[in-house]
Amino acid sequence: MIRDLPNILTLSRIAAIPVLVLLVALGAAWADFFASLVFLAAAITDYLDGRLARERLQLSDFGRMLDPIADKLLIGATLMALVGFGHLPGWGIYPAIVIMLREILVSGMREYLAEIRIGLPVTKLAKWKTGVQMVALGLLLLGGGGARVIGLGFLPMAWIGGTLLWAAAVLTLVTGWDYLNAGLRHVTTPRPSI
C-alpha cells in the first residue's frame, strides 16, 4: 500500500517541503528558480497521485487520508516561507491568511464529519481554486530573480503571482463558505439514535 506509486507520489510531496523552504531561505536567483521547479514537481504529483490511483485501482484509505494532508502541508509551508522571507508583494499576507484559515476550517470540518461517517467531497470549484493557488505560488516562488535565470525577468512575476493569489483567496472564500454550509447541514440535522 505505501509502496504503491500514487502513495509514493503523495509522500514525495511532503518530502519536497524542506527542500523548498531551504531554497526560498537562500534568497538567490538560482535558488528561487529551483524552488519554483520543486514546487511545480510537487504540484504535478498532486494531480498525478489521484489519477494514477484510480487508473491502477490502487485506491487506499492511506492515500485518501494522506493526500489532503500533503496538499495542506505543501500550501501552508510555501505560504509561510513566502511571507517569512519577504517574497510576497504588498498586501499579499491577507490572501495568504485567508487561504490558511480556510484550510484549517475545512480540515476541522472533515475530521468532525468523518467521526459521524459523513464525507465532504471536493467540488469542481475547489479543484479550480487549488489550480489557481498552485500557479500563483509557483510564480511567487519564481519571483523576479528566478525569472531572470530563465530569461523572463521582464515579466512582473510578483504582480502576476500576487494577483492570482488574491483570485485564489476569493475562490477560497467561496469554496470555504460552500463547505461550511454543507458541514453545518450535517451538524444541525438531528441524527437518529441507535
Summarize the structure.
The chain is an all-alpha fold and 194 residues long.
Structure explained in plain terms:
It is a single chain. The chain is an all-alpha fold and 194 residues long. The protein has a single domain (5-188), classed as Four Helix Bundle (Hemerythrin (Met), subunit A) (Up-down Bundle), CATH 1.20.120. It has helices at 5-26, 29-55, 61-84, 93-115, 124-149, 157-188. It starts with a helix and ends in a 6-residue tail after the last helix. The mean pLDDT is 85.
Amino-to-carboxy terminus distance: 34 Å
CATH topology: Four Helix Bundle (Hemerythrin (Met), subunit A)
Low-pLDDT sequence parts: none
- Average pLDDT works out at 85
Shape: globular
Sum up the structure in keywords.
Four Helix Bundle (Hemerythrin (Met), subunit A); 194 residues; mainly alpha
List the helices and strands and how they pair.
Blueprint: H1 5-26, H2 29-55, H3 61-84, H4 93-115, H5 124-149, H6 157-188
Helix pairs in contact: 1-2, 1-3, 2-3, 2-5, 3-4, 3-5, 4-6, 5-6
